[in-house]
Design a protein that fits this description.
Elements (H helix, E strand, L loop, with lengths): L1 H21 L26 E2 L6 E5 L17 E2 L1 E3 L15 E3 L6 E2 L5 E4 L2 E6 L4 E8 L2 E8 L6 E6 L8 E11 L2 E9 L5 E9 L3 E6 L5 E6 L7 E8 L3 H12 L6 H16 L2 E4 L3 H13 L5 E2 L6 E3 L5 E3 L7 E2 L3 H4 L3 H8 L1 H18 L6 E2 L2 E2 L8 H10 L7 H14 L4 H7 L10 H21 L3 H10 L7 E2 L4 E2 L37 H8 L2 H11 L16 E2 L2 E2 L18 H14 L16 H11 L1 E2 L7 E4 L6 E5 L5 E6 L7 E7 L2 E2 L4 E3 H5 L2 E8 L27 E2 L4 E3 L3 E3 L1 E2 L6 E5 L16 E3 L3 E8 L9 E7 L15 E7 L15 E5 L13 E11 L3 E10 L1 E6 L2 E6 L6 E9 L2 E11 L5 E7 L7 E2 L5 E2 L2
Parallel strand pairs: 32-36, 38-44
Antiparallel strand pairs: 1-2, 2-4, 3-6, 5-11, 7-8, 8-9, 9-10, 10-17, 11-16, 12-13, 13-14, 14-17, 15-16, 18-31, 19-22, 20-21, 23-24, 25-26, 27-28, 29-30, 30-35, 31-32, 33-34, 33-36, 37-40, 39-42, 41-43, 43-44, 45-46, 45-47, 47-52, 47-55, 48-51, 48-53, 49-50, 49-52, 53-54
Helix pairs in contact: 4-16, 7-8, 8-9, 8-11, 9-11, 11-12
C-alpha cells in the first residue's frame, strides 16, 4: 500500500514540478493551495468547492460505507456517484453527503484525475462518458453548479437524489417537488453520526424545466432541460438546516434572486479566500513547503461550519429555532478533541471575532442540553471522543482576554460539564481515577480530564473563585494516580487499585483512545515538570522521551488512526502532537528544533497522500502552520507558545487585533537550531513566547545555526510553564497484582525517586511520616488495604497510593443441576446507549440457542439481547472471563458483575476475574448494538490456563 502511495506521490510531484517550471510569473499565496492534498491515504479531505467556514461543501462523492469514505472522496477512485452539498473535512467518522446532483441518469460515472481541477472555491471535472463538463463554486449557504452538456444538449438530464447516503444513516423524512418553472425544492432528515439532521434546499436553474420525473420512492427527481442553444446549465442550490424559506433567502442574499453569473459568484468567493489565505504570507522555503503551508492554511479555514442563516436563525439541539444577533454567526462541526491542541489557539492569534462567536456557539448548545459539547455536528452532538475540551477552548480564549460573551455563564458551564461527562467523570471525581474494569479508555479520559480541570482552575483563579480553584487544581493532579513507577507508563487501574494486566505498551488496548500506552505516556501538558518528577527526574524523563522515537514501531492491534510512526511517536494522530516540544521543558530545546524540522519535512508532502493521518478539521494543518512559524501551543490556557526554529526566512501575520507580526530567520534551509531570539530588538531568553508578546506585533527575529546551540534555553528558568515547581517525590507503587490471591501474597513498595522513604498503613488511614516506614516486603494473608506515601528531605511529599489486596473466596456453586444444554435469550429493538436500557424495553422475541450469538438478529443496527443460563465450572479456582463487543456488553455471574464492556462502541476486549467453586453458576450476558458494525464474542481462562479461549457450548445449560 505504501509503495503505491509513494509511486502516486512521485507522479503527482513530477506533474506539479513540471507545471511550476513552466510558470513564469510569481504565484499569489492562494495559487499555492492544492485541495487535492489529503484526499489520498487517510487524510479524508475533499477537493470540492466551499467558502471560508461555509455551510456548503459541494464536492464529488466517489465512495461510501467505509472508513476512507469519511469525506465522500478518495483519490484512489476513478468513478463518482455525483456531487453532494455537505461534507466533512478530515474526520474519522462518516456523515453528510446531502442533496446529491448528477448530470446523468447513469451511475457510477468514470473520470480521470487529469481532467480534474480544484482551487479554493472551485472544482471542475470532465465526465467523458456523458460528454459533460461539471464545474462548481459556493457561497456560505449556496452551491453553484455549471454543467456544459456536449452530447444531446436538447435533452439534458439532471438527477437530484435525496436517497444518497455516505454511510448507513437512516432517512426519517424527505420531500422533493417542483416549485416553479425553473425551481425544485425539498428537504430531508437523517440520522447517522448525529441524529435528526435536517437540511432544506431550494434549487433554481438558468433554464426552465422541460420535464421532470419523480422516482417511485419519491426520493429523487430526474429534471430535463433543453440546452439546444449550447449554453451551460447553471444551478443555484441554497441550503438551510432551519427551513425552506431560509434556504431561498440564503440563496437570494448571496447570489441574487435571478442572477446566474457563475464566474462573478466564483470571483467573489475567491476574493474571500484570498483575504483568508493572505492572513499569513511566507517567503523563502521550497516550492513544496509553500504549497504545504498555504494548503494547510486553507484546510484550517474550511471548518468549523456556519449553521446560522442570513437572517440569524439556526436550529438548536432541541429542534427549536434560535437567533444570533446581527453581525454574529452560529458555528458547528467542532472536532474539539483534535483542535483544542493547536487549531483553537492558532485562531486566537488570527481571528478574535471568530473565537468569540465559537465560544458563544458552545454556550448556546449548553443552554439547550445542559452540557458543553464534545463533538457537535449540524444541530446535534455526536458524543464522539473524550475529555470536555470545550473547557480548554473557553479558558484559553478567556485567559487571552477574548471575552465578548457571558463569562459567568461560561464558567458555570465549564464546571457543570466537568461533572456530567458520561465517560467516567463520576468515578474520576469520587476516586481520583477511572476504574479500567468499568470504563473503557480510562487512562486517556483521566489524563484529558485532568488537563481540562487545570483549565477550569486557571479561569477560577482569575475570577477570584478560590474555592473552585482549589478543587480543580487538586483534580488536575489526578494523572499521578495512574502512573506506574515499575514501567513508567500511565496504566489502567482496576477499582481495587491493582493494575490492569497483562500490560503491553505496544498494544492498542481498552485503556487508551486511538493509541497505545506509548502515545499517552507524556500527556500532562499543564504539568510537564510534575511528570518529570514521576519518572524519577530529568535524566530518566529524557531517556524515556528519547526512546519514544527509537523503540520498535510495531503496533499490536488494528487502528488506522495510529499513522506517521517514528518509533512509537504517531504524528498521524493528535495525542502525539505536543511531544517533540517537551524537550524544551527539560533543558534540551535543540532536540525540539531538530524534531519539528524533521516532522515538517517527513509528515507533510504536496501530494494527495501528503497528510500522514486524518486532517481532523484543521488540527494536522494547524500543527504545520504553527511549527513552521516557530512556535506551538503545548498547553492552551497558559498563554505560552513553545519556540522552535521557523521553516521560512520571513512570515508576515495579520494579527486578529489589527496589528502585524513579522517573523524572520536566517537561512532556515541550511539552519535549524536557535541561538538567539529577539522581539522588537529585545532578547527573549526563554524557550517560549507569550500570547501578549505575539499580539504586540512588530518583528520576531530568530538567529539560527547549522549545529545545535546547547547553551540556548538550557536553564530551568528558561522552561515553559508547569504547575509543579518544587522537587516532588514520586508516588509509590506495587508492581505485582494483589487481587484474588490464594494463601498469602507479598507486596513490595517502591518509588522512582532515589532516596525516598515510604510510609504506609494497613488499616485504611492516611499515612504520614509517623506511620511505619517501609523496609521489607509485606506478607499479607487476609484482604488488606495498603496506603502509602513517599517522603524525601527537600522534596514535596507524594500523593497517597492506595491498593486493596483481596483474598480469593470461592463463590459457591448453585444447587441447581441443569441437564439441557444451551442458553435462553430475550431480543429487543430500540435506541440503546448502554445495556441498562434493555431492562426498560419491550421483549420482541425469546427462546433458546446453543450459545450466545447475534447472528440471527433480524436487523443490523439498534437491537439488543439478554442471554441467561448456567455455566459449568469444571474445577475450583479463579476464572478470568472476557467479552468483545460492538457496541456494549456486561457479564454477570450470579449477582456479581464480572466483565463491564458497556458502551464500548468498538470490538475491544474487556476482562474480569472471579473465584468459582466447581459446579453450575447462573450467568447473565447483556449486549446491545447501536450502529456501524456489530460483534459479540466471549471467552474464559480456566485455572491453570495461560490464555483466554472460547467457552465450550457443552459447558452452557438452560435455566
Amino acid at each position: 500500500m505504501r509503495l503505491l502511495q509513494t509511486l502516486s506521490s512521485c507522479l503527482y510531484t513530477g506533474i506539479l514540478c513540471l507545471y511550476t517550471a513552466c510558470t513564469q510569473t510569481p504565484k499569489a499565496p492562494i495559487d499555492y493551495v492544492d485541495p487535492f492534498i489529503g484526499t489520498g491515504f487517510h487524510g479524508h479531505t475533499y477537493p470540492g468547492a466551499t467558502a471560508p467556514y461555509g455551510g456548503v461543501q459541494l464536492s464529488p462523492d466517489t465512495r461510501m460505507g467505509n472508513w476512507d469514505a469519511c469525506s465522500g472522496y478518495h483519490y484512489s477512485d476513478s468513478t463518482l456517484m455525483g456531487f453532494s452539498h455537505t461534507h466533512l473535512s478530515g474526520t474519522g467518522c462518516i456523515d453528510l453527503g446531502d442533496i446529491l446532483f448528477r448530470p446523468s441518469v447513469n451511475t457510477p460515472l468514470p473520470f480521470s484525475h487529469k481532467d480534474e481541477k480544484a482551487s479554493p472555491g472551485y472544482y471542475q471535472v470532465e465526465l467523458p462518458s456523458e460528454g459533460v463538463t461539471a464545474e462548481f463554486t459556493a457561497t456560505p449557504h449556496t452551491g453553484i453548479h455549471r454543467y456544459t452538456y456536449k452530447k444531446n444538449p436538447s435533452n439534458a438530464k439532471l438527477v437530484i437524489d435525496l436517497g444518497h447516503l455516505l454511510d448507513n444513516e437512516r432517512i426519517y423524512e424527505y420531500d422533493i417537488k417542483k416549485t416553479g418553472d425553473n425551481e425544485i425544492s425539498g428537504m430531508r432528515c437523517t440520522g447517522g453520526w448525529v441524529d435528526k439532521q435536517y437540511i432544506y434546499f431550494v434549487a433554481t436553474f438558468s433554464h426552465p424545466l422541460k420535464a421532470e420525473e419523480i422516482s417511485a420512492d419519491k426520493k429523487s427527481i430526474i429534471a430535463t432541460f433543453d440546452l439546444s442553444n449550447n449554453s451551460p446549465l447553471i444551478c443555484k442550490v441554497g441550503v438551510s438546516i432551519v427551513s425552506e424559506d431560509n434556504a431561498r433567502a440564503n440563496m437570494e442574499a448571496e447570489t441574487g434572486a435571478d442572477a446566474f453569473d457563475f464566474d462573478a459568484i466564483y470571483q467573489g468567493t475567491r476574493a474571500n479566500w484570498e483575504k483568508e489565505i493572505d492572513a499569513i504570507t511566507v517567503e523563502g522555503g521550497t516550492e513544496a513547503e509553500r504549497t504545504n503551508f498555504y494548503t494547510a492554511l486553507y484546510h484550517s479555514k474550511v471548518v468549523p461550519n456556519i449553521v446560522s442563516d442570513v437572517n440569524g436563525q439556526y436550529r438548536r439541539p432541541d429542534m427549536t429555532t434560535g437567533q444570533v444577533p446581527a453581525g454574529h454567526r452560529e458555528y458547528s462541526t467542532f472536532s474539539l478533541w483534535d483542535t483544542f491542541r493547536g487549531w483553537n489557539p492558532m485562531m486566537t492569534i488570527l481571528d478574535i471575532a471568530l473565537v468569540n462567536d465559537m465560544v458563544i456557539s458552545l454556550l448556546n448548545m449548553y443552554d439547550v442540553t445542559g452540557e458543553l459539547p464534545i463533538w457537535p455536528l449540524s444541530a446535534g452532538e455526536t458524543g464522539t471522543m473524550i475529555g470536555y475540551h470545550s473547557v480548554s477552548v473557553i479558558a484559553d480564549a478567556y485567559m487571552k482576554g477574548i471575552r465578548d460573551y457571558d463569562v459567568e455563564k461560561a464558567f458555570e458551564a465549564m464546571k457543570v460539564s466537568a461533572a456530567k461527562n458520561k465517560k467516567g467523570a463520576n468515578y474520576y471525581i469520587a476516586n481520583g481515577f477511572i476504574p479500567s474494569n468499568i470504563k473503557k479508555e480510562s487512562v486517556s479520559c483521566l489524563l484529558e480530564f485532568a488537563y481540562d480541570d487545570w483549565c477550569i482552575a486557571q479561569m477560577a483563579k482569575d475570577l477570584g473563585k478560590m474555592d473552585d480553584y482549589k478543587t480543580y487544581i487538586k483534580r488536575s493532579q489526578n494523572f499521578v494516580n495512574v502512573f506506574d513507577g515499575s514501567t513508567r507508563f500511565f496504566r489502567g487501574k482496576r477499582a481495587d487499585g491493582n493494575w490492569e494486566s497483562p500490560f503491553n505498551p505496544f498494544a492498542i488496548g481498552r485503556s487508551y483512545t486511538e493509541a497505545t500506552a506509548w502515545q499517552y505516556r507524556f500527556f500532562t501538558p499543564h504539568d510537564v515538570n510534575g511528570l518529570v518528577q514521576l519518572f524519577g527526574g530529568r535524566e530518566q524523563f529524557i531517556a524515556n522521551l528519547d526512546s519514544l522515537f527509537t523503540v520498535s514501531s510495531e503496533v499490536e492491534g488494528e487502528l488506522s488512526d495510529v499513522t506517521g510512526l517514528i518509533g512509537q511517536y504517531a504524528h498521524g494522530n493528535e495525542p502525539s502532537h505536543h511531544m517533540v516540544y517537551l524537550y524544551s521543558y527539560v533543558g534540551e530545546p535543540w532536540k525540539t528544533q531538530e524534531w519539528t524540522r524533521r516532522l515538517l519535512d517527513e509528515m507533510y508532502q504536496p501530494t494527495p497522500e501528503g497528510i500522514i493521518g486524518n486532517e481532523d478539521c484543521g488540527q494536522m494543518s494547524a500543527w504545520y502552520i504553527l511549527s513552521s512559524l516557530g512556535f506551538y501551543s503545548v498547553c492552551p490556557g497558559s498563554n505560552q507558545f513553545v519556540l522552535t526554529s521557523p521553516l521560512f526566512s520571513k512570515a508576515t501575520i495579520k494579527l486578529g487585533n489589527g496589528k502585524e507580526l513579522i517573523i524572520t530567520a536566517n537561512n532556515p534551509l541550511r539552519n535549524k537550531y536557535i541561538t538567539r531570539v529577539t522581539l522588537n530588538g529585545e532578547e527573549i531568553k526563554t524557550c517560549f513566547i507569550t500570547y501578549d508578546q505575539l499580539m504586540q506585533g512588530g518583528t520576531l527575529d530568530f538567529t539560527l545555526t547549522a549545529t545545535p546551540d546547547k547553551n540556548w534555553g538550557m536553564q530551568p528558568e528558561d522552561a515553559p510553564y508547569s504547575y509543579t515547581t518544587k522537587p516532588t517525590t514520586s508516588i509509590p507503587y506495587i508492581a505485582n497484582d494483589l487481587d484474588l490471591f490464594e494463601g498469602e501474597v507479598t507486596a513490595e513498595l517502591k518509588s522512582t525517586t532515589d532516596g525516598a522513604v515510604i510510609h504506609y498503613t494497613l488499616d485504611g488511614t492516611e499515612p504520614t511520616e509517623k506511620s511505619p516506614a517501609y523496609s521489607t516486603p509485606l506478607n499479607l494473608k487476609e484482604t488488606t488495604t495498603i496506603k502509602a506515601k513517599a517522603f524525601k528531605e527537600g522534596f514535596e511529599p507524594s500523593r497517597t497510593y492506595s491498593i486493596t489486596a483481596t483474598k480469593a473466596v470461592l463463590r459457591p456453586a448453585s444447587p441447581v443441576n441443569p441437564t439441557q444444554h444451551g442458553v435462553s435469550y430475550k431480543y429487543y429493538e430500540g435506541e440503546f446507549h448502554m445495556v441498562a436500557d434493555l431492562l426498560h424495553s419491550k421483549i420482541l422475541k425469546s427462546g433458546t440457542m446453543t450459545e450466545p450469538s447475534i447472528k440471527e438478529a433480524p436487523q443490523e443496527d439498534h437491537f439488543g439481547y439478554i442471554f441467561e443460563g448456567y455455566l459449568y465450572a469444571p474445577v475450583d479456582g479463579i476464572y478470568e472471563f472476557a467479552t468483545r463487543s460492538d457496541d456494549g456488553s456486561v457479564l454477570k455471574i450470579g449477582q456479581e458483575e464480572v466483565v463491564n464492556n458497556d458502551s464500548s462502541h468498538a470490538a475491544i476486549m474487556a476482562t474480569g476475574r472471579i473465584p468459582l467453586a466447581k459446579g453450575y453458576h447462573p450467568f447473565t450476558l447483556l449486549y446491545f448494538e447501536d450502529y456501524e458494525g456489530e460483534h459479540l464474542s466471549w471467552g474464559w481462562k480456566q485455572p491453570g490456563d495461560d490464555k483466554i479461549g472460547p467457552i465450550p457450548a457443552d459447558n452452557l445449560y438452560v435455566r
